[in-house]
Amino acid sequence: NYSTRRLVWFAVLFASLTAALIGIALVALRTGTSTTLSIQQVIDILLYNEGDKLSRLVVRELRLPRLILGALIGGSMGLVGVLLQDTMRNGLAEPGLLGTSSGAVIVVAAITILDLPVAAGQMPLWALLGGLAAGSVLLVASTLKMPPVRLILVGAALNAMLNALLIILISLGE
After folding, report:
1. Which residues make Cβ contacts (< 8 Å) with residue 34, sequence separation at least 6?
2. Hey, how many other C-beta atoms are within 10 angstroms of the C-beta on 137?
3. Per-residue b/e over 45-61, b at no fewer than 16 CB within 10 Å?
4. Percent of the chain at pLDDT above 70?
5. From CA 133, how far away is CA 53, in angstroms rounded?
6. What is the band of 143 on the pLDDT scale with cuts at 50, 70, 90?
7. Taking the C-alpha atoms of 110, 115, 119 and 123 in order, what is their torsion angle to the nearest 10 degrees?
């Protein structure tokens, strides 16, 4: 039966990708500059809270939160890419091409180069606001009922303009 074979294939693929993800996560948790641990030590720390104090601190307080945050950000970026491609009905649509990434970069560059008084912890928030501002230009353009190809061209033009502005900012900073 075709549907049964497809379901089995999906289950095997899912199990394989899950195993690969767990393996990569264990390697990421064991490797670092200050302390390199064995995979067994990482498993003992995660499951049984065993190991010396420094190793537990490094794995639980430093490496694990970064691993989880990296996985969440990577998944979010993949989701955004899929949503943009589906919305624009174009496989080339992605935040870098449409200018939203450049909007975030230009704000962070302006804060850094112009030495604006912003706390380092607030930098991601300002980057988010810059990306949202650039994305809102596309949102306004989408209300004009233009075809998706033209909307992608608007995004590419916005991206080029913001990159030119970034070059001007960098030149001012030198």
Report:
1. 58
2. 19
3. bbeeeebeeebbebbee
4. 100
5. 45
6. confident
7. 20
- State the Cα–Cα distance between residues 22 and 80, nearest whole angstrom: 24
Amino acid (one-letter) located at 41:
Q
Over residues 147-164, the mean pLDDT reads 91
DSSP codes, 31-65? --SS----HHHHHHHHHH--S-HHHHHIIIIIIHH
Q: Is 145 left (phi over 0), alpha (psi -120 to 50) or beta?
A: left
Mean pLDDT rounded to a whole number for the chain: 91
Asked if the model's pLDDT at residue 174 lies above 80, the reply is: no
- CA–chain centroid gap for 38, Å, is 28
Is the per-residue pLDDT at 64 higher than 90?
yes
The two three-digit tokens of residue 163, written as one number: 């990159």
First to last CA, the chain: 67
pLDDT for res 125: 94
Report CA Rg, the chain: 22
